[in-house]
Amino acid sequence: MLIQFSVKNFMSFRDEAILDMTAINAYKEHEYNLIDMNTKERFLKVAAIYGANASGKSNLNHAFDAFRYIIMESFNNVEADKDKVIDIFYKPFLFEKNIENTEFQVIEIVDEYEYKYGFEYNNTCIVSEWLYRKNIKTNRNTIIFERTNEEINFGATVRKECESYKNQVPSETLVLSFFNKLKMKTDIFSIVYKVIITTMIMDSSLCEERDMIEKFLPNTIDKDKNQLLSFLYAIDTGIKDVAYKTDGKRNFFYTLHEDKEGNNYELPLYSESEGTVKSIIIYMYAKAAVLNNTLMFVDELNVKLHPLLLKFIIDLFYVKDSKAQLVYTTHDTTLLDKKFFRRDQIWFVEKDEEGCSKLNALSDYRVRSDASFEKDYLAGVYGGIPLLKEFSLEEGE
Description:
Blueprint: E1 2-8, E2 17-20, E3 34-36, E4 42-44, E5 46-51, H1 57-73, H2 85-88, E6 102-110, E7 113-121, E8 126-135, E9 141-147, E10 152-154, H3 159-162, H4 175-180, H5 188-197, E11 200-202, H6 210-234, E12 241-246, E13 251-258, E14 264-268, H7 274-292, E15 295-298, H8 307-315, E16 325-330, E17 346-351, E18 357-361, H9 373-378
Parallel strand pairs: 5-16, 5-17, 11-15, 15-16
Antiparallel strand pairs: 1-2, 1-6, 3-4, 6-7, 7-8, 8-9, 9-10, 12-13, 13-14, 17-18
Helix pairs in contact: 6-7
């Protein structure tokens, strides 16, 4: 479960930006929007991030994707003839003379422990890396390891098992990635690795992901068709059935529609609207996220979806006792309303005059109890909107 993600000096985020999923206890509205861990703090199930075009809100999605991909590939990326993954994903803020290192950090809760993991890097090496663990019941903090350019220092819980390997970790490889690949008695490295890698990250091209459909839709149809059809009925697609045929090499997906006389007609799945195809993909992702208590990070979730369908999908994450989370970016202000969201669930991204993206929560502002979130946002009270200039298509004199 995600508690916090921070990024510094990546793409348009020059200064540190922190997405915090910790709920503000003073807010009493929409208690069902929260995850209760039986601790002093509760956590958000859903966070919505608003921003103008070119504000950099999509770069938050890219940042988590880069963070995850470096962790996943840094161990496998040490061959001399391959581009280093840290070089591929070193995308610092470029509107400055002095280019600095990029830094990512995540705080996650798994079972009874809170893990804080992060690293700093450039296009040649891992500059620093750290992993700490805290028992959420006793608040006892433990150092797992701390890494600098010069050395790796292990905490007492893993030192005996890890010490003999520390000089074998390449400068471009993460300690987490390295030790996750080894067969070890401790499961700390595999736990942190898994919770980050299993995060589902999607962008606005979701409706074009035919590989996702090819891979997962047959199993969904075979084992979960009734629930899928209930979902498609609930969002008013007019689809009566979803099925597929195979020629042994590839699958052919089709839907079934019914006219007023009860006659059935087959329609190739990819002849359905892009919104319908996207809805099916999101359903499969969301179901997996909810069942496995994982994080789903979606850029431009609203694209090709009706606002009511967007709310329907968001509500899937409010299942009681689930620890699944949804973080999404959007332009759609229809749901920017206190009827649907708490103030700590709404975030804004905007660029300053230097081209730096800033991430702020609605809870950072003084908001009246009778305020209209949407009206104030569109009026520029919270930032994150385009500053439009006069423009004419008339021919010049």
